[in-house]
Amino acid sequence: MNYLLSQLTAGAYVIAVEDTHTWDVRSYTNCYVLRRSGQLILIDAGLPEYQSAIVDALARIRITPDRVTDVLLTHGHHDHAEGAALFNKARKYVHPADKPMLPAQLAAEFMTYVPLPGEFTFAAEGVDGLEIVLVNTHSPGSVAIYDQLSGALFVGDFFCYFGESLPQGELVTNSNLIKQGSCDYVAGQAAAGEPGLDRFMLGLGRLLEYRPEFFCTGHGVVVRQDIQAFLKKMWQSGSQKRPG
Fold it and tell me: Metallo-beta-lactamase domain spans which residues (predicted)?
């Protein structure tokens, strides 16, 4: 499979595997790599069918699968989780509400995030520098993961660009068209009285305290620059008065 590899900052990368087979639209499925002193962390792991593309992309940044120390899932859906079987020396983490989604053999390899004081925050035991918050819109255990070092906010499929083309072919972009389109989408959901919007807004509200440099989704484009302002504008778009 074709893939794109881009560096976000020193020690932080996105791998986007192009998939024209699994769904009825051309899309990209993303996973992310964080290189730390003594740790190599993978955020999401794709499908087993992506193995050759992911191995090749990792080799380009001089990483072999057996060197990955930790795999953290944003949620338990198969296209983000089942590729984790490749990393047989890594510790693996998922939110407890999503662990039942995993195939039984793979689920046995996973630990669950540890609750922290405060109702919606978690930690991956042994992994430092990451803040994990439950956003539970896309699945009961969907989380966002904020990396303090790179400023990347990994949101999985809480919000993503599934099936959308990359603006000017760029995987990482500051496209105002993408940002405005995202806000317009949320505004449209509010105007339509979409029943799931309240849960989305609850999760979005939990992300507003962070000051990320990158908005890293589960599918497609990664948005960069002024991300807190972008999230606040999205919040305002969803807070518009809805039909009575």
Answer: 28-219
Q: 3-state DSSP call for residue 187?
A: helix
Instruction: Count CB-CB contacts under 10 A for residue 163.
Output: 13
Q: Is 63 exposed, middle or buried (0-12, 13-18, 19+ CB in 10 A)?
A: middle
Of residues 156, 209, 229, 172, the one with CA closest to residue 12: 172
List Cβ neighbours of 104 (8 Å cut-off, separation of 6 or more): none
The pTM of the full predicted model, rounded to 2 decimals, is 0.96
Say if CB 143 and CB 131 are below 8 A apart. Answer: no
Q: Which domains does the chain have, with CATH numbers?
A: 3-238 (3.60.15.10)
Task: List average pLDDT for each run of 10 residues in the chain, which is 244 residues long.
Answer: 96 97 93 95 98 98 97 98 97 98 97 94 95 95 97 98 92 96 96 92 96 97 97 94 56
